[in-house]
Design the sequence.
């Protein structure tokens, strides 16, 4: 493929709550797999990336800080291939994600965008309040809400933290499923969630032990790939809830998760996808 300048940008520790080592492991594995393809790669933590005037042909990144994403956007406009695309990373913020999913008819819970300075006056319980301006960084960014009084307290707390809007998702009963995918190479994996398994914030306990409801995995893959396409990202993960009748709705979607249950296979798939995109984009 010729000599390319390739850079990897890892995720800042504050954006890997309780999963720092897992995020580092998948990033390092992808770097190794790309080096096996003959690429010479420099890697940077996202805290350092913005401090340097870095230019490259290809950048693969787990970054989530807004300053980093803005810098990646500028490089995209100069012609750099960025994976996941910086424009897609901006869309993975909760509010734009919700708006895009609704607009494109992605299977998604009934949802509201709600200002934190207004009392919550809807009969929408039980539901989830999720900060609208980013993915979850601390446990309080995603909260299960059952009463009007609880909603009022949470909105005040969000407002005091400088968060202007929350996304309100109606709570769904059923089996909680975690899924992982990489577009362009056909990779997809999934698992039923148990409340006993280690997770970012332990919120799986709300849905409890899975029943084992049957569902169409190919249909979930199709909609998950479509959701990633709508957002503009390549490497993704998320959660869905499967109802007793086998229907499902995607309740969460993230750029480049840690792929802990399928790291080896995912690392190769991510590297293959980046390699494919580089050939397509750079015409080499």
Sequence:
């Amino acid at each position: 493929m010729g000599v390319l300048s390739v850079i990897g940008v890892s995720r800042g520790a504050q954006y890997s709550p309780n999963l720092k080592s897992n995020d580092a492991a998948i990033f390092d594995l992808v770097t190794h797999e790309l080096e096996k393809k003959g690429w010479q790669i420099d890697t940077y933590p996202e805290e350092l990336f913005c401090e340097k005037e870095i230019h490259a042909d290809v950048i693969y990144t787990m970054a989530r800080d807004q300053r980093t994403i803005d810098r990646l956007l500028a490089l995209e406009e100069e012609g750099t291939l960025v994976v996941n695309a910086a424009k897609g990373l901006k869309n993975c913020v909760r509010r734009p994600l919700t708006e895009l999913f609704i607009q494109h008819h992605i299977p998604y819970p009934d949802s509201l965008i709600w200002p934190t300075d207004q009392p919550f006056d809807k009969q929408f319980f039980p539901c989830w309040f999720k900060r609208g301006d980013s993915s979850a960084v601390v446990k309080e960014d995603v909260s299960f809400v059952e009463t009007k009084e609880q909603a009022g307290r949470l909105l005040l707390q969000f407002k005091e933290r400088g968060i202007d809007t929350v996304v309100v998702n109606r709570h769904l009963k059923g089996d909680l499923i975690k899924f992982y995918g990489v577009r362009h190479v056909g990779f997809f994996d999934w698992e039923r969630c148990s409340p006993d398994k280690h997770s970012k914030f332990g919120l799986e306990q709300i849905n409890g032990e899975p029943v084992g409801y049957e569902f169409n995995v190919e249909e979930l893959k199709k909609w998950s790939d479509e959701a990633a396409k709508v957002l503009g990202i390549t490497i993704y993960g998320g959660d869905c809830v499967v109802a007793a009748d086998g229907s499902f709705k995607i309740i969460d979607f993230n750029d480049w998760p840690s792929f802990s249950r399928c790291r080896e296979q995912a690392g190769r798939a991510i590297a293959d996808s980046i390699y494919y995109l580089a050939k397509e984009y750079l015409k080499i």
